[in-house]
Amino acid sequence: NAGVMQNPRHLVRRRGQEARLRCSPMKGHSHVYWYRQLPEEGLKFMVYLQKENIIDESGMPKERFSAEFPKEGPSILRIQQVVRGDSAAYFCASSNRGGDTEAFFGQGTRLTVV
Amino acid sequence: AQSVAQPEDQVNVAEGNPLTVKCTYSVSGNPYLFWYVQYPNRGLQFLLKYITGDNLVKGSYGFEAEFNKSQTSFHLKKPSALVSDSALYFCAVRVPMDSNYQLIWGAGTKLIIKP
Q1: Nearest CA among A18, A12, A14, A11 for reference residue A81
Q2: Which residues contact B115 (CB under 8 A, 6 or more apart)?
Q3: Closest by CA position to A110, among listed B37, B94, B49, B26
Q4: Which of A39, A69, A89, B26 is deepest in the core (most CB within 10 A)?
Q5: Average pLDDT over residues A41-66
């Protein structure tokens, strides 16, 4: 059973471009969480999704950021018109249900905006 | 190999008693150390971190953690547990990797506080 897979591992974008980060949860997992880690900071929660639904997006910036978890395929975190401040590591985690189950983390995508 | 260990899958504590959730690490260099908590139906939340300085760091919700370099440990503590502290707790270590860094995570410890 493969773990949580994130791709790409490294992504370089110029200011103003779009960044798409993909997360394939563990097999059988229908809950996905996205986190951002800025340099020198801990992880910050962004959004919690179940299949086709956004459950909690309280940590998501109001503009330029969106997330989806379609019925088929990976979860996508999309950042439009990237700026230098978006440079960070983005982590995805999945679990097989909400509540107190263990969440498994991917290795992260490092986004660099130049 | 670099690793983070949370030796207890589950910790049970009576409300009002002190609690400790253990974390030890095996990494090279001087790591940054973190604790996170996951409440039911919520994403991970950052609790506290150690980078440098005082070995005792204080974080959210009354939690604190003590960095012990000789024992390579970073145990999470709270003087008086609340039922609402029941959650899943993760220890993490950030270490340099090439020109960036890597997060290494513990497996998590389920904390159950009984009334």
Answers
A1: A18
A2: B15, B83
A3: B94
A4: A69
A5: 86
**Mean pLDDT calculated for residue range A63-91:** 95
Of B42, B46, B86, the CB nearest to A42: B46
Neighboring chain A residues of B45 at a CB cutoff of 8 Å: 45
Chain A residues in contact with B49 by the CB 8 A cut-off are 42
Chain B CB contacts of A47 under 8 Å are 43
**Chain A residue with the nearest C-alpha to that of B95:** A40
Residue B88 · residue B110 · CB < 8 Å:
yes
User: For the residues of B5-43, what is the DSSP string, one character each?
Assistant: E---SEEEEETTS-EEE--EEE-SS--EEEEEEE-TTS-
Beta-carbon separation of A100 and B40 below 8 A? yes
Q: What are the structure tokens assigned to A58, written together? A: 């309280």
The whole-angstrom separation of Cα B102 and Cα A108 is 9
State how far the Cα of A102 lies from the Cα of B36, in Å rounded to an integer. 13
- Judged by a CB distance cut-off of 8 A, whether residue A104 touches chain B is no
Peptide bond into A8 cis (omega under 30): yes
- Chain B nearest-CA distance from A78, in A, is 19
The structure tokens listed for B100 are 């960036």
- How far is it, in rounded angstroms, from Cα B57 to Cα B67? 8
pLDDT 10s digits, B45-83: 778 889 888 999 999 899 999 999 999 999 999 999 999
Is some CB atom of chain B closer than 8 A to the CB atom of A40?
A: yes
Mean pLDDT of chain B: 87
